[in-house]
Specification:
Length: 464
């Protein structure tokens, strides 16, 4: 007698099935977590798009995994009290930018608070968290200071359909950036369609115009427009740039950036100024920052000020050495300069480091230095030169810092670590590396930088 091979449990559903689903909560990723009860009484988890907690929806199964499925709302059978009518008409077209616009803002905040707690407790194994109430956005609308719009042969210029890297919809309005940014998009689209300019098709990898990037300064009102292209004729870009610049006096910078690679993530190899200046100036908490097309700055200026306040508060006074890892253009480094004897910022993007040095000079700060390099290789050199830091600040990308970097930080024995995170799942993983070195969490502060989406920023403080 031979043993039967083990088989994965068969889900009680098939793609295309429509079923009634009870929605329990919202998940990190934007979808709602629902339960489907099969006729034999078994429970099956479905991640449902455009649903709200506490409601019952009829959902069509899109995809099945071993232990869960993915589905889309067909009809709302019993509405949640937190469901609201989306303000933007593009939600119905599948815009991928506002996955939670159908949910009341206070419920969004409660969900984000829950996501932070769940990640740290379930993934990180932390208990009795000193979790503060989430800091709401100053405004849940018109808060972004940077947006990227895609050119496409079908649609001209707009935003990507959610989950579709190769499709866009024609943008007519947007409630995330300024009204002028929408006018810039419409002006650019009309120009390229009228003149028959070649637009990049991500499927065929052919075409000239790729993206339109719009950055604006809250402090000065200045607007930067970046026209991103593959290699091609300069004359048409120059004409488009002049056309955009003539739209409004607040457009003080129009740039042409060349990105010849086939991927949307291909780096920009060179940039030249078509109109005005190469940078715009932003200000936060008494500090000025020169912002270039490719340098990172927090996308919500008002909430960036909240982050600066939190980092200053949690770092505390006391002099000593401060280290700012993933420092960008120096937002936290320069903010800490008045509380430390010296501050060293580390960043892999050389353009950001150059901007950070210029920003230090712009703000007459002489005790901050900046170093180009990967965190894993540059950090040991900086620590060897600086000695034991009093406070260590890090603001890594969404993928987190990783175990090797976190252990290196712990072995440098700072009194205090302030971790600014944009992803609670990688935050939980990274913080788990610090426990064996004697660090405990003393503060967890969620901050909402991105209303209408599932994204949440968290500032965590640890002490030895």
């Amino acid at each position: 007698m031979t043993d039967e091979p083990s088989r994965a449990p068969t889900p009680p559903l098939r793609p295309g099935d429509e079923v009634s689903v009870h929605i329990d909560s919202l998940a990190y990723g934007g979808e709602a977590v629902g339960r489907y009860a099969s006729p034999d009484g078994k429970q099956f988890v479905l991640f449902v798009s455009k649903a709200a907690p506490g409601e019952v929806v009829r959902a069509r199964v899109r995809r099945l995994r071993r232990r869960h499925g993915e589905a889309d709302v067909v009809a709302v059978e019993q509405a949640s009290p937190d469901r609201v009518e989306p303000r933007c008409p593009h939600v119905a077209q599948g815009c991928g930018g506002c996955s939670w616009q159908h949910i009341d803002y206070q419920a969004q905040l409660a969900a984000k608070q829950g996501l932070v707690r769940d990640s740290l407790e379930r993934l990180g194994g932390f208990r009795d968290l000193p979790l503060r109430p989430i800091i709401a956005a100053t405004s849940p609308w018109y808060f972004r200071n940077k947006m990227q719009f895609a050119f496409h042969p079908l649609g001209g210029l707009g935003l990507h359909v959610g989950g579709a890297w190769d499709r866009i919809f024609t943008l007519e309005t947007c409630l995330l950036q300024s009204a002028l940014s929408v006018e810039i998009v419409k002006t650019a689209r009309a120009f390229v369609l009228e003149h028959g300019v070649s637009l990049y098709d991500p499927r065929t990898k052919q075409g000239f115009l790729r993206e339109l990037v719009i950055r604006n300064s809250v402090a000065t009102g200045e607007i930067m427009v970046g026209i991103v292209t593959t290699d091609g004729p300069q004359a048409v870009v120059t004409a488009l740039g002049r056309h955009i610049a003539a739209l409004d006096a607040r457009i003080t910078s129009v740039l042409h950036a060349v990105s010849p690679g086939v991927s949307d993530a291909a780096p920009i190899l060179r940039t030249n100024v078509l109109h005005g200046n190469a940078t715009i100036t932003e200000a936060t908490r008494g500090l000025k920052f020169q912002i270039a097309l490719t340098t990172f700055f927090q996308t919500n200026t008002a909430q960036a000020e909240q982050l600066v306040d939190l980092v200053r508060e949690q770092a505390g006074p006391g002099g000593g050495v401060g280290i700012d890892l993933y420092c960008g253009v120096g937002l936290f480094s320069l903010a800490l300069a008045s509380q430390c004897e010296t501050v060293a910022g580390i960043e892999i993007v050389s353009a950001s480091i150059e901007a950070a040095r210029q920003n230090a000079e712009l703000n007459h700060i002489e005790n901050a230095t900046f170093h180009v390099g990967d965190a894993r290789t540059a950090l040991p050199e900086v620590l060897a030169a600086r000695g034991t830091p009093r406070v260590f600040v890090l603001d890594p990308p969404r993928a987190g810092a990783g175990g090797k970097v976190m252990r290196r930080i712990a072995r440098s024995t700072p009194e205090r670590i302030v971790y600014v995170s944009c992803n609670p799942t990688t935050l939980a993983r990274d913080l788990g590396e610090l426990g064996p070195f004697g660090y405990r969490i003393t503060n967890v502060q969620p901050v909402d930088l991105f209303p209408q989406t599932y994204h949440v920023e968290t500032v965590v403080t640890l002490e030895r």
